[in-house]
Design goal:
8-stranded mixed β-sheet; binds N-(iminomethyl)-L-glutamic acid; 16 helices; Urease, subunit C, domain 1; zinc; 419 residues; binds zinc ion; 16 strands
Amino acid sequence: MTLLIDNIGELSTQHLAGEASLGSGGAAGVIRGAAVVLEGERIAWVGRSSSAPAADERYDAGGRAVLPGWVDSHSHLVFAGDRTAEFEARMAGQAYAAGGIGVTTAATRAASDGELRRLLAARVAEAVAGGTTYLETKTGYGLDVENERRSAVLAGEVADEVTYLGAHLVPAGADPEAYTELVCGEMLEAVRPHVRWADVFCDRGAFTEDQSRRVLLACRDAGLGLRVHGNQLGRGPGVRLAVEVGAASVDHVNFVDDADLEALAGTWEGWAAAGSPGGAGVVATAGTVATVLPACDLSTRAPLAPARALLDAGVQIAIASNCNPGTSYTSSMNFCVATAVLQMGLSVQEAVRAATFGGALALRRNAGEDADGKRAVGSVAVGHRADLHVLDAPSATHLAYRPGMPLTHAVWRAGTRVR
Ligand SMILES: N=CN[C@@H](CCC(=O)O)C(=O)O
Ligand SMILES: [Zn+2]
C-alpha cells in the first residue's frame, strides 16, 4: 500500500542531500510545496507536489508544515508515584537534589507489572500524541537486580531504545562501592539482554567520576553503547568522562566550561554531516552529542544549557524531553523546541533539527540501510522510516511563535497513522 501526502506547505526534511536540486526556498533541508510517498513503513519518494507520482491513497496536508516525527532520545518513563510535594518545595526555593530518585524507586518497586505497564503505555501514548515517533527510555528506578531487569523488559515492550541506568542513585542504606560492583556485575548481566545502551548519573549526590568510569567501562565491555548524565548540578567530570569513553551522548550539560566545549567539539572534527560532501553521517566517526533538556532546566530552575555556545563551537546537539517525575514531568517535544528557540537562542530550524536529526544522531539511528529494523529516523528521505509530524500551522516557526498551542495535527509512525 502506498500513501501520497501532498500539498505540504513546508516540508522540513532535515536531510541535506538533494536540497539544491529541490530548491530549499530558504532554510537548509526545507522544501516548499512538497509531497511525500509512504510505502509500508518506509518513505518511498520525496519531492515537489507538482511532480509527485500516483499512489493507492492520498492525504491532503492542506498547506500545513510537515516535519520528521520527534526523536526523544532521553526519557525515564518506567516509574510509579509522583513527586508533587518535591516540586512544590522547589518552587518555594529548595534546590533539586539527586536524593528524590529514592522516593520514586520505592513507589516503582511497590508497583505490580500490570500497573507499570499501564502507566508506561499511557506515557508513550501521550508522547506519540505530541508528535514523538521514536523514543528512548531508561531503567533507573529499580536499583536492585530484579527491579532493574523488570524495568528493562517493560520498557522494551513500548520504547524503541532502552537504556540501563542502574547507576542512577546509590539506594538508601547501600554501600556505594558495593553497589557500584553490583551495577557492573550481576545487575548488568541480568539487564544486558534487554538493552542497547548504558547510562550513568555522574554528578554530585549520585556517582563519582571513578565509580562512573567503572560502570561505563564494564557496560562497554558488555557491548553496550554509552550515554552519560553529566554536568547537571555543577561543574564536574561528566562531559570529560563521556568524551573519554566515547559516549554517544552526554545529557544535561548545564555547567560546562571552555575545556568541556573544546573536548566535545574535538569529537566532531572531520565528521561528515548527512548530505554534506564526504558522506551520509558516517556512524563510525560521529562524536559525542550534547543533549540539552529545556523542560528540565525550567522545572529545576537551573541555568539553561548553553545550546547556542555548543552549536557555535561545532558540537552536534540534541533536544530531548527527559520526561521523569523528578525534574521534567512532560514529554512535550513541541514545548522543548519552543523553549530552545525562545530561551536558548536557537533558530527554529536549529531546534527542529536538534529534536529530530540530533536525537537520531544521539541514538546512532541517523543513517541506516534501507531494510526493516535498520531504517534511519529523524529525517525525511527515501528508505528512511516513515515517521512524520503534520503541524496545524503553515510553518515550523509557529512552534515558537505560538508556544503552548496544540499544533500537532497528524502523526505517522513507521508508516502507520497514530494520530
Ligand atoms: N538527573 C538524573 N536523573 C533524572 C532525574 C531523576 C529524578 O529526579 O527522578 C534527570 O535526568 O533529571
Ligand atoms: Zn535523565
